[in-house]
Design a protein that fits this description.
disordered N terminus; 9 helices; two-stranded antiparallel sheet; mainly alpha; two-stranded parallel ribbon
């Protein structure tokens, strides 16, 4: 993270020596300004805000004459729920007294090859662990969310569900979990035998929260692989210092799950969904990004 260098001191000035500037790869070089306590506070407040928002949407739907929860009401409710966490994260980020920058949340452009390498390495690790877990647990069933959004009822419902699952959810969830929660928890420095393990603990905790966040929309047996995905995405965020590979991997995972598991699309159709989703995410979020500073020599 770049910063303004301190003013030069003359021989007549006194003062404590400035700490060395963090370099890329240092556990502390990518820490945001908000403290650790904001992470659990944001989870609790975000949950309340999201639930209240969903209740309001359901109430408006009922007042409009809907006798049951329609796909449109479910979609708007889910969007409001996710946005509630985004707004909550922004609120707590502003409590630090310094206006947060997009780079604090991980909106940093990085080398294309670094992003691609992180994407495929993380994706391969996630698929391997999930395959082993699936062989042991014998996973069955499907995601409840697409059904609630009415993907089989109309083309409009299918398009709305695809936009939410493959674009909105990856943007909002990565912003909240990897951009805000993981950043805050990393400030809790934990040393074991002289080794700093705070970042790893933060990744595990964030992964668990990420898995639990899908309770209700996914079968219980899927929460463990989802939690592991959340952990893997934290490692990608840490090693690349960027949220973009995380959003891409999250979107691809959701696109394949929706296109293959739920819609039984062909490979070409799924590839089109993946490409379109990533293109929209890039168009929405790239204007927020800044260049990652070069590694100090």
């Amino acid at each position: 993270m770049s910063s303004v260098p301190p003013p030069q001191m003359t021989s007549t000035e006194t003062g404590p020596p400035a700490p060395p500037a963090p370099v890329r790869g240092d556990d502390r070089s990518d820490e945001p300004p908000w403290p650790v306590w904001t992470a659990p506070a944001a989870v609790l407040v975000g949950l309340v805000v999201g639930v209240l928002g969903s209740v309001v949407v359901a109430g408006v739907g009922a007042a409009a004459g809907s006798t049951h929860t329609t796909p449109a009401v479910s979609l708007i409710s889910d969007i409001v729920f996710d946005l509630g966490f985004v707004v909550t994260a922004l609120y707590f980020a502003y409590t630090t007294g310094r206006r947060p920058r997009p780079a604090d949340f991980g909106y940093r452009r990085i080398s294309l090859w670094l992003g691609i390498g992180a994407f495929f390495a993380a994706g391969a690790g996630y698929l391997l662990v999930t395959a082993i877990y699936q062989a042991i647990v014998k996973l069955h069933g499907s995601d409840k969310l697409p059904t609630d959004l009415g993907i089989s009822t109309s083309t409009a419902a299918l398009v709305g569900a695809a936009i939410f699952v493959c674009v909105i959810a990856p943007i909002c969830e990565e912003f909240f979990f990897r951009g805000f929660i993981f950043g805050a928890l990393r400030r809790w420095h934990i040393k074991v035998h002289g080794h700093q393990i705070g970042t790893w603990v933060a990744a595990v905790e964030t992964g668990i929260l990420f898995g639990l966040a899908h309770t209700g929309s996914a079968a219980a047996q899927y929460l463990i692989p989802l939690g592991f995905l959340g952990f893997v995405l934290c490692i990608v965020r840490w090693k690349t210092r960027s949220l973009y590979p995380c959003m891409a991997l999250h979107s691809v995972n959701n696109s394949i799950a929706l296109g293959y598991n739920e819609l039984h699309w062909t490979g070409g159709e799924i590839l089109g969904l993946v490409a379109g989703s990533i293109a929209v995410i890039a168009a929405v979020t790239l204007p927020l990004s800044s260049r990652t500073p070069a590694r100090a020599s």
